[in-house]
């Protein structure tokens, strides 16, 4: 037998307005504990990298002081100093900015190419689909890291240093962003193609075609918005993959070149001091680890939140 309080709760649930898709997704996301933890850590890391520049000048981060080279962590230098006496804390702040910017810009290129190729292949089908998918499969068969190393080696010194907003960036930043973006779009293209193949057969798409709606308008206004969920998840996880890819090739000495610091090329500088000066690799390595884990947890939460088949509320 229902008690009065239980009856009141049931009545309130029946009278409550239904949740919109956005509210339902947000409710699911907030119940994903690891995603919330990942989001919190990611906010803190962004504040550390971009907010830290309000307290530490880039000039100080690049200031060499040989007499204090390889000094261990202390009150004056909490993360110690590197091989030429530069403050590691200051360099992780500015290196984090570049690593995150590389991740975001590379994902913009990756997402744009993946959506374009996947949408055209999935919507038009036929020979266009076959041609684009064979090209995609050919790209997938080339090891990404190998391609990154070869292209970074060939193009690394072709672009001069750039000055933007009062900061000097190595031209290799542009090269790395473009290379990562051009070698990471294939999986997203296949996801988008599958979504387009499924959605284009729905009644509302057939009705739009019957009313004379142009192909471009159908793709942009009708199919793409209904495919946005996996694209958002893929783009989120792509940022983490891009940061790792930059760290890989920078660790090999082929990534972003000085004077620009990144977490990846800081690890490269610590290669010969793994035992004698562990702070050189520990702090940038820890920041890369926390950033990648945070983004992956966030991506998992987004995937569960916007999955239309999820029953978690």
What does this entry look like structurally?
- This protein has 14 helices and two strands, in the order αααααααββααααααα.
- It has 313 residues and is mostly helical.
- Helix 5 runs parallel beside helix 14 (279-306) and helix 12 (228-251) runs parallel beside helix 13.
- The protein has helices at 4-15, 21-30, 33-51, 58-61, 88-124, 126-140, 144-155, 172-182, 186-199, 203-210, 215-226, 228-251, 263-269, 279-306; strands at residues 162-164, 167-169.
- Helix content is 68%, strand content 2%.
- Residues 12-16 have low confidence and may be disordered.
- It has one domain: MetI-like fold, CATH 1.10.3720.
List key phrases describing it.
MetI-like fold, mainly alpha, single chain, two-stranded antiparallel ribbon, elongated
Strand order of the largest sheet: 1-2
User: Care to count the β-strands?
Assistant: 2
How many helical elements?
Answer: 14
- What do the pLDDT scores average to? 83
- For the record, the count of structural domains works out to 1
Strand and helix order: HHHHHHHEEHHHHHHH
pLDDT < 50 runs, ≥5 residues: 12-16
Tell me what the CATH architecture is.
Answer: Orthogonal Bundle
């Amino acid at each position: 037998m229902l008690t009065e309080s239980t009856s009141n709760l049931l009545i309130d649930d029946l009278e409550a307005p239904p949740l919109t898709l956005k509210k339902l997704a947000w409710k699911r996301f907030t119940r994903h504990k690891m995603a919330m933890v990942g989001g919190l850590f990611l906010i803190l890391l962004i504040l550390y990298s971009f907010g830290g520049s309000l307290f530490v000048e880039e000039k100080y981060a690049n200031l060499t002081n040989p007499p204090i080279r390889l000094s261990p962590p202390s009150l004056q230098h909490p993360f110690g100093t590197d091989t030429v006496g530069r403050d590691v804390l200051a360099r992780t702040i500015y290196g984090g900015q570049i690593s995150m910017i590389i991740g975001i810009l590379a994902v913009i290129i990756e997402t744009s190419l993946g959506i374009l190729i996947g949408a055209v292949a999935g919507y038009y089908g036929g020979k266009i689909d076959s041609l684009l998918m064979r090209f995609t499969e050919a790209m997938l068969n080339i090891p990404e890291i190998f391609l990154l190393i070869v292209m970074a080696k060939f193009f690394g010194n072709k672009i001069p240093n750039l000055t933007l907003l009062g900061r000097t960036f190595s031209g290799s930043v542009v090269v790395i962003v473009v290379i990562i973006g051009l070698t990471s779009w294939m999986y997203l293209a296949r996801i988008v193609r599958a979504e387009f193949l499924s959605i284009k057969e729905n009644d509302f798409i057939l009705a739009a075609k019957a009313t004379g709606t142009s192909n471009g308008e159908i793709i942009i206004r009708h199919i793409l918005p209904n495919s946005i969920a996996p694209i958002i998840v893929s783009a989120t996880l792509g940022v983490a993959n891009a940061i790792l890819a930059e760290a890989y090739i920078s660790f090999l000495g082929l990534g972003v070149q000085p004077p620009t610091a990144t977490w990846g090329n800081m690890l490269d500088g610590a290669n010969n001091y793994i035992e004698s000066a562990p702070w050189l690799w520990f702090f940038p390595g820890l920041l890369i680890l926390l950033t990648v884990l945070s983004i992956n947890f966030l991506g998992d939460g987004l995937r569960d939140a916007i999955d239309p088949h999820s029953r978690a509320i």
